[in-house]
Write a structure and sequence with these properties.
49% of the residues lie in helices and 10% in strands. The chain has 477 residues and is α/β, with parallel strands linked by helices. Among the domains are: 256 residues, 3-Layer(aba) Sandwich (Rossmann fold), CATH 3.40.50.10420; 45 residues, no CATH class. A hairpin with a 4-residue loop joins strand 5 and strand 6.
C-alpha cells in the first residue's frame, strides 16, 4: 500500500467536526448505525439485575488486575517465557516498531499479514513497516477497507462503519485488480477473502492484538468474528502479538465475565465466532501453529495514567466501543473528526496520556457530560469525571499542584484566566454582585450580537431588564 494514513492535530478538531456536520448523508449513516448498535446491545442485556451484577464483577476484575499490575506483568512474562514465547517491552511507539522490525529483519520477512489490532494503529505499525520495505496488509475486512482507502479506523470495533456499500464497491473496483463494480455485499466479502487467502499463505509474519493476557498460565486471548485472527496466528511461521500493558488479568477464570461484557457490549453477540487462546509456539507433533511467538508489551503513556489514582480507571477499558455508540457527540461527527487512533469518550480520556494534553485537550471539551458513556461502560469507568479532570488540567496554571499531566495548561489563556478571576471576585462579594447585576440589566442594549462559540448556533445572551431582586421588590404583598 502506498497511501499514507494521516493523524491530524487536535487543533483542527473544530474544523473537521463542522465538515462532518455539514455532510447530511454521513450524519444520517452514523445515526442509523449507532441506533442499530444500541438496539443490539439492549437485546443482550434484557435483565437489568444481571447486567449490573456483571458490570460490578467486570469492574472488580479490572480494578484488581490494575492494583496488582506490576506483579501480574512479571508473572505473565515468566509464564510466557516458560511456554516458549519471547516477551519484549516497549516504552513508546518507536520502540515497539523497532522491536517488530528487528524480528522481521532477522527472519528476512517481506510480507506481514495482520489481524485486527488497535494498538498497531496506535503506533503506526503499517507505515513503519512500509518505510522499511515490508508489506503490512490488514486482514480484518473493515481494516482492509480503510487501508485501501488510505484512512484510519473511525470506530475501534467497526473500522469502516462510516462507509456505505456504494463507496466500498467503488473502492474495490478502483483498488483491487480485476474487480468489477458490484454493490452485492456477499460478493464484496468474497473479493476480500480471495485477496486474503493467498496473503495468509505467503506471509512471513502474522501480527495480532491481544484482548486479555492471562498471567497465571501465560495465555494470550483474542476474540474475532471473521477467522482472520486465527489464520494470522497459525499460518505464518512467526506470530507477533502486541498489546498495552494494562490488558493483563491474573486468572483464566477472570476472562469469561470480561468476554461476556465485551462481546455483548460491542456487537450485541453472546460470544464472538472465534475465541483464541494462545499459550506458545507449535510443539513437536502438532500440525499447525507458528514456530515463533513474540509478545510486545507497550507502555506509550499508560504508566502516566496508572500513576494517578483517578486517571488509573482509564486503563480498565476493554475496548468494546459502547461509549462511542451511545455518545451524542460521536454519533454526529464520527471517529475521524477526533484525529486520534481512539475516538469518542474513551479516546478523549486515553489519548492525552499517549499524545500529551497539549495535542488532545479539545477532545475533553467535546462532550455534553450527559453521562451516557458512564451508564453503558461495561466496567464502569467514570468517564465524565475524568473528562472534567482533564478540562481542569488543560486550564491549569503551569508548575502548580493542579498541573500533573504532560501538557497541562495547554489551553490556559491569560485573558480568559483574568476574566474568570474577575468573575470569581464579583460572585464572591455581595456588594460587587449587586452593583454588577445592576449595570448589566440597565446596560442590556449594549450586549454584543456576536458572542463567540455561543452564537454560532444560538441567539445572543441578553440580560433581563430587571434583576430577580428588583422583581421581588416590585411584587405586591
Amino acid at each position: 500500500m502506498s497511501k499514507v494514513i494521516s493523524i491530524h492535530p487536535a487543533k483542527d478538531f473544530k474544523a473537521r467536526s463542522k465538515a462532518v456536520l455539514d455532510n447530511e448523508g454521513q450524519r444520517k449513516n452514523f445515526r442509523g448505525a449507532m441506533d442499530f448498535l444500541q438496539a443490539k446491545r439492549r437485546s443482550q442485556f434484557s435483565d437489568g439485575d444481571e447486567l449490573q451484577g456483571l458490570r460490578n464483577l467486570g469492574q472488580a476484575i479490572r480494578q484488581y488486575s490494575l492494583a496488582n499490575l506490576p506483579r501480574l506483568l512479571t508473572q505473565l512474562e515468566a509464564n510466557l517465557t516458560a511456554n516458549g514465547v519471547t516477551v519484549h517491552w516497549a516504552e513508546n511507539a518507536d520502540d515497539a516498531n523497532a522491536i517488530a522490525l528487528d524480528i522481521a529483519r532477522r527472519v528476512n520477512a517481506k510480507h506481514i499479514i495482520k489481524g485486527k489490532s488497535m494498538v498497531s494503529e496506535e503506533i503506526g505499525f503499517n507505515h513503519a513497516m512500509e518505510a522499511a520495505g515490508i508489506e503490512a496488509l490488514e486482514s480484518d475486512m473493515g481494516e482492509y477497507i480503510v487501508q485501501l482507502a488510505g484512512e484510519g479506523p473511525s470506530h475501534i470495533i467497526m473500522p469502516a462503519i462510516h462507509k456505505t456499500k456504494q463507496e466500498i464497491a467503488q473502492l474495490f473496483a478502483d483498488e483491487v485488480p480485476g474487480v468489477a463494480y458490484t454493490e452485492d455485499v456477499d460478493a464484496l466479502i468474497q473479493i476480500g477473502r480471495r485477496v486474503m487467502r493467498r496473503k495468509f499463505a505467503d506471509a512471513d509474519i502474522g501480527l495480532s492484538g491481544v484482548n486479555f493476557a492471562v498471567a497465571e498460565t501465560g495465555t494470550l486471548c483474542l476474540v474475532e468474528n471473521e477467522g482472520n485472527g486465527r489464520m494470522c496466528t497459525t499460518v505464518p511461521k512467526v506470530h507477533i502479538a502486541i498489546t498495552g500493558i494494562e490488558k493483563v488479568v491474573e486468572k483464566l477464570e477472570h476472562v469469561p465475565p470480561l468476554l461476556s461484557l465485551l462481546t455483548r457490549s460491542a456487537t450485541g453477540q453472546p460470544v464472538t465466532t472465534y475465541v483464541n487462546m494462545i499459550s506458545g509456539p507449535r510443539k513437536p507433533g502438532e500440525k499447525d501453529g507458528p514456530q515463533e511467538v513474540h509478545l510486545i508489551l507497550l507502555d506509550n503513556g499508560r504508566t502516566q495514567a496508572y500513576a494517578d489514582d483517578q486517571l488509573r480507571a482509564t486503563l480498565q477499558c476493554i475496548r468494546c466501543g459502547a461509549c462511542m455508540n451511545h455518545c451524542p457527540v460521536y454519533a454526529r461527527i464520527g471517529g475521524h473528526a477526533y484525529g486520534t487512533t481512539y475516538p469518542g469518550p474513551i479516546g478523549a480520556i486515553i489519548s492525552p496520556h499517549m499524545l500529551g494534553l497539549e495535542a488532545t485537550y479539545p477532545l475533553a471539551f467535546a462532550s455534553t457530560l450527559c453521562g451516557a458513556c458512564n451508564e453503558v461502560c461495561p466496567v464502569k469507568i467514570p468517564i465524565t469525571d475524568i473528562l472534567v479532570r482533564l478540562r481542569n488540567e488543560a486550564q491549569a496554571k503551569p508548575d502548580t499542584e493542579d498541573a500533573t499531566l504532560r501538557g497541562s495548561g495547554a489551553a490556559r489563556s491569560a485573558a480568559v484566566a483574568t476574566v474568570w478571576s474577575m468573575w470569581s471576585q464579583v460572585y464572591s462579594k455581595s456588594g460587587l454582585y449587586k452593583l454588577a447585576s445592576w449595570f448589566m440589566s440597565r446596560g442590556r442594549a449594549l450586549s454584543p450580537s456576536e458572542q463567540g462559540a455561543w452564537t454560532r448556533s444560538r441567539s445572543p445572551l441578553v440580560p433581563a431588564p430587571k434583576r430577580l431582586r428588583d422583581l421581588m421588590k416590585d411584587r405586591k404583598p
